[in-house]
Each structure stands twice: as structure tokens, then as C-alpha cells.
């Protein structure tokens, strides 16, 4: 088993394992050293009896058929020591997910050039009939020379237990790579560790809704590839550019980039290199001040000295200061250490607490003269000029006093407020009026359907946060197979060799019926023919995207747990008529089932009769 191998082991008497890079469900990804050719290689290893062993070797064989300078090529594949392994070329640099984590989203031209390089390599693989299968940021590498390299072409998907890659999945993930490079979020079909892009009502938000300043051509490309049939400017791109293939996407991005001279050199100068271990110098201990010997007192000349108690032998002289000697002070410039000496004598006690003088509750009645006022009733013009004992207590510290200490009331003077208080009140009133006026203007503009400042809202640049979707968005199902269904035929088959073309991800290929002289229906030869799609397992089906050749085509959809042999006793989950080549059929309630039957009940007219054709079926659930 792979878990039994460790760094330093030698596989197949040739590859010495150096570093374990990743592990996935019993499979391991190593950096190894080829002892024959003296170079580093990448090594995928799983147990020989693992169910992924045979698909892994087949994926390595298919990957070796693709010849492109941007691929990390397959060098070897075999079984040995109870293990199945695939050897790939080794590349050193930073993967796209690491670049996004360290630098954040990339610039528009830099992101477009990087993804155009990936698209060119993917197009070469599709031309050879091989798909990558797991085109995620982790598998896009920028090496030390600034070149873009692809990791695990067809092999990585097999290591993760995924079915052989499809062309349509690679095309969608190409749009996801551009989206991720521009925003740092991942909207693609294949699973990735990059944070998922936000979804609103089953639709991934456009890049311009996450990050300002993204050019509209790149925003429209991402929206049309990641959100097909989204409409808007992105839908018009398909009229002038081939966005259904990797080569068409690469040409579109190359046209946006223009002359790429200097971009690879700029990536090389950015420093995509492996992390180095930095050893810090050792820190020396600070010097310790030697203990100062205290001189002994002179001997007493008294003829009858008192006998000294027996203290035993003198302790050895220590070079360290005792803990109670004080606190150390470290000098940051010279590394010297000084000490705050402990007090030789105890600190003097604090002074005794003195009780404050007792203040009278009421002032004594004056001997003569008018009655005295309390302080809060007298103005600031009152002054205390007497020498009576009451003058040292509040509130009788104001007002003139007679020689006997009686406080004499002065005539009332105008009450004056604190300086500046009227201005503060006026400023508060003005601020309140301004806030009220702004609120009225904002409410009026919003009531007219405009922005708070009165401008006409631009829906294409609307990036206001919205409430998160309450349910998960439907996604295209993968691994679908198709067979024909013709229960009234003799023999009961309808071009079975073409059935797989309806789910191959390529709209240019299609399954078609035979040519009939009469259309289907009660007066025709048959009630209908169709395709049975095996979803691989029970799935909740939310919608079905149908691409036909010719129009109009009337159809019914059936969802069952068992593969049907006829549809006479079945109840359709949806019916419709496709007046255009492309049609999306929403299924109410999202029922569950494994087998989806596309049953054609009316065919379009062609020269010489009636014939229907299904170019592509995409099931979302």
C-alpha cells in the first residue's frame, strides 16, 4: 500500500522518494529522484489492487499522445512492488492558487495572457482527443523562466477517481481559470481548494460585481463561459467568436493581450521559486556583571568582644546577583546589563490620613442685613471679601462680607451662560437640518428608482451585496451516458452508434433519427423515438439544456429509477417545443431519478421528409 512507503525508499530500483507533496484517498503525489538520468521527477503512486490503477495507466497512455511544450510530460508508467505509478516531468515554480494567495488577484492583461497559454495547451490535447479532466488553479504552474506549464494532464483526474475528462468540462474550467485569476474566487466545475465564487439565484456573479476595474471583454467572456445562456453582451460574443472550444477562447484572449513580448520575462522577474529555509544566527547570552565583594568592617578594639555565633564555613562567592538584589536593565545598543539595586532600608510609611474638615449643612443666620442667597442663585459678580470663618466653606465662599462675617447680598445682575454654548446649539440645529434635508433627497431619489445621488442606475455595474441564496445552485452533471430508445421500430433501434454524441460536450456532433415520410403522432408511423440518459446515480434534476438541429422539435422528458423500455405508461415531468436550436427546460419540484428519457414527439421538416437531431443535452441538478 502507498502508506507503507516513506521518504528515502526506492521504487522500481530507480526512483528514490524525496518529498510527499499531496495525498488523496490512498493515492500519493511525490517528488522523486531518477537515479538513472539524475533528475527530479513527479511521481503518482497508488496500490496495484486499487480500482483506480487501470484508469491511471490508461490516462498516462492518453496523456503521452499530447505533444505540447507547456505540458509536464509523462515519462514512465508501470506496476512494481505491489504499486502502480506514473512518472511525470518535474516543474519548479508557483501554482496559480499560491500566486492568488500571496499576491491577490492578477492584473487583467497578465491574467488573460496566462489563461491564453493554458487554452493553447488544452486545445492541443483536444485535437488529439484527450481532455485534462481537472483544470483547476492548483494544476497551472508558472516556472522559474516565466513559462506556463500544465500539471497532471488526464492523470490527475484519474488519481482523484474522476471519469475521463470531457471537452465541455475543460472549456468551462478555462473560463473558471480566467475568473479565478481576476477575482481570486473559483467558479469552475472541477473541485478546487480556492474559495468558491458567490452565487445568486443559481447564477455565478460576474467578475465586475466582485472587483472593480475589470475590462468588459474579459468580464463578458467569463460570464458567457461560466454562465451559459446568461444573455447580455456575453451572449453576443458567440456570434463573432467560438467560445465553445479551447482554441476559440485562446484566440479571443490572445487578441485582447496583443503583442505578448516581455510578459514571460516579467513573470520570470517576479521570482517564482521554491521556498528556501533561512537559518538565523545564534543569539549569545548577555554578559553578567560580577558580584562586588563588600569590604568587611574594621575589627572592634574592645578588649572583651562579644562572641560571634557559629555560622559555619563561608559560602562560595557567586558571580550572579541574587534575585532580591534588584531588576536587570538591558541596553539594546551595547548588550550591557545594569541592575536596579534593592532598597537597603524599608520604605517610609505613608503619612497618616487626615480627615477633611466638617462642612456645615446650613449657614448661620446673619446678625443683620438682608437675607443671604445660595450660590446657584447669585451671579458671577458676587465676591467674597470678608474674613469670617464661613468664607472657607462652600457655598458661602462668594459674596461680600461684613467685618463680622455676614454675607451681604448684591443686586441682581444679568445671568450669563457659558461662553460658546449658544454657538454649539446653533451648530447642532444646522447639522440636524442638513441631515434631514439629505434624508429627504435620498428618499426622493430612491422612490424614483434612481441612485441616492439621483443618477440613473447602471445594472451592468451593480455590485450591491445581495442576500445569499437559500438553496444550492444546480450544476451540470458529469459522467452521463446515452442509449437510443425506439420501442416501435423493427429492429427496435435508432442509430445507436450516434447516441453518445448527444452528451460528448461538443455541439458540432449530434445524434439523429432516421428520415421519416410522415411525422410522429396519432396519424404517423410511430408515437416517437428518443434517448435514455444514464445519470450514473439518483440525482435531483432542476433543468435540462437541449440543443437541437432544426426546428421546431416537440419533446417530452421522463425521469425514472429504472431504464425504460417504452414511455406509454410513464408520466412526463416536462414537455415543450423548441422553436430555436437551443432550449432550456425547467423541471418543477426537482424530482429525483437516475434515467432521464428525452422523447421526441414531433420532428422538423427536411428535404424529403422529417428528421430530428439532438446535438447536446446538459442535465443540471
Concise structural overview:
By secondary structure, this protein is an alpha+beta fold. Helix content is 20%, strand content 21%. The protein has helices at residues 53-63, 96-103, 108-127, 155-159, 167-183, 207-210, 216-226, 233-237, 246-257, 263-269, 421-447, and strands at 10-11, 15-24, 27-34, 39-47, 74-80, 83-89, 93-95, 140-143, 148-150, 199-200, 203-204, 326-330, 337-341, 481-485, 511-512, 529-540, 543-548, 553-560, 574-578, 582-586, 592-602, 605-606, 609-610, 613-620.
Number of strands: 24
Distance between the termini: 36 Å
CATH class descriptor name of the domain at 93-269 = Mainly Alpha
User: Major sheet: size, sense and barrel closure?
Assistant: 6 strands, antiparallel
- Order of the strands making up the biggest sheet: 1-2-3-4-6-5
Output the radius of gyration.
Answer: 43 Å
Proper CATH architecture of the domain at 93-269:
Orthogonal Bundle
Which whole number gives the mean pLDDT? 78
Report the CATH topology name of the domain at 93-269. Transferase(Phosphotransferase), domain 1
